[in-house]
Amino acid sequence: KSYSYPSVVCTMWVRYLEALKKYPVATNAATAFSINLLGDVLAQNMEHRSSSSPLMNHNDEQKQQEHNWNRTWSVASFGMLTAGPAVFWFRWLDRTFPLAAYHQTNSKFSLGALSTLAQKLTVHLGLFAPAMNASFYGWIIFQKRCDCKLLQESFSFLWTPRLFSGSPLALSYDSSMPATTTVSFWNEWYEKLERDLLETQINSLKVWGTAQTFNFMVLPHHLRVVFSNVVMVAWTAYLSVMGHRPGDENPDATNV
Q1: Distance between CA atoms of 76 and 36, rounded to whole angstroms?
Q2: What is the end-to-end Cα distance of the chain in Å, rounded?
Q3: Which DSSP symbol is given to 97?
Q4: Would you say 185 and 141 are in contact if contact means Cβ atoms under 8 Å apart?
Q5: C-alpha angle 121/79/183, rounded to 5°?
Q6: Strand stretches in the chain, DSSP E
Q7: Which of 120, 168, 221, 245 has the most CB atoms in a 10 Å sphere around its CB?
Q8: pTM of the full structure
Q9: What three-state secondary structure class fits 139?
Q10: What is residue 241's DSSP assignment?
C-alpha cells in the first residue's frame, strides 16, 4: 500500500498536535530543542558568509567556517530547559486573556479582541520575554565558562569529560585555564545585559508584537503553531548572533 506525501505529512502533524495535548512539556521541550538547534545553525551559516573575505587564504577560511557544535548544543539545550516554564506561562496567559472567541466580522477586527490581545502582548513582552532574553545571555556566558576549573570542581559529580566522546557535540575543557570566580560571571552577565538587553527587547517588541498580532487576528487556529515556530527559528538565529558577538567570544577570566 502506497502513501502520498501530503497524507504522511498530515498524519505526522496530527500526531504532533496530539502529543502536544498529551505530553505538553516533553513535546514542547523536544520542539524547542529542534527549533533552537536549527536557529543556531542558521545563525552560524550567516556569520560565516558575512565574515568570508576574498583576501583570506583557503586554510584560514576553512578554519573560520568550521561549525561550532558546542555553541549549537548550548543554544539548543537552553530551549529544551526553558520549555517547561514556557508551557505553564502560556497556559496562564490563555486563561487570563482568552482569545478563543475572537474572530473577524465583515473584515473588521473587534475592538474587544484588539484590546485583550494588546493586554496579553503587553504582559508577555513586558515580563516573560525580557526574563527569557536575559536568561539566554546568562546561559551562553555560563556555557562559555564551563571550561574553567571552578565549574569543573563545583560540578565534578556531574562532569563527564568523555560524554559524547568522538562526536561533534563533544564537551571539552582546558585544565590549564585559570580558575574563574562567581563574581566574574555576574560581572560579565551584567555587562552583557547593560550592553545588549535593551536593543534585544526593542527588537523583540517589533518582531513578536507584529508576529503575534498577525498570528491571532489573521491566521486560522491550525496554522498558528507552524507560524510561531517559523518565527521562532528566525528569532533564535538573531539571539544566537547577539549572544555570540565577536567581543563576547573570549571573556577575560582574570577580570574579577
Answers
A1: 5
A2: 67
A3: S
A4: yes
A5: 95
A6: none
A7: 120
A8: 0.74
A9: helix
A10: H
8 A C-beta contact, residue 48 and residue 64: yes
Summarised one tens digit per residue, pLDDT across range 163-209 is 444 444 444 444 444 444 566 888 999 999 999 999 999 999 999 99
**103 vs 8 pLDDT, higher one:** 8
Nearest-5° Cα angle at 89, 203 to 191? 45
pLDDT digits (tens, 9 = 90+) for 137-153: 999 998 887 754 444 44
Output the CA–CA distances (angstroms, integers) from residue 198 to 51, 92, 130, 155, 219, in the order listed: 26, 26, 9, 33, 30
* Residue whose C-alpha is closest to residue 243's, from 172, 193, 209, 168: 193
Phi and psi at 104, nearest 5°, equal -95, 140
Residues 197, 133 contacting (CB under 8 angstroms): yes
DSSP 246: G
> CA-to-CA distance for 151 and 146, rounded, in angstroms?
6
- Cα–Cα dist 136/129, whole Å: 10
The residue type found at 183 is: V
Residue 205: φ, ψ to 5° = -60, -40
Longest dimension (CA), the chain: 69
* Residue 255: all three cell numbers together: 577580570
> What is the b/e burial string over 121-136, where b = at least 16 CB atoms within 10 angstroms of the residue's CB?
bebbbeebbbebbbeb
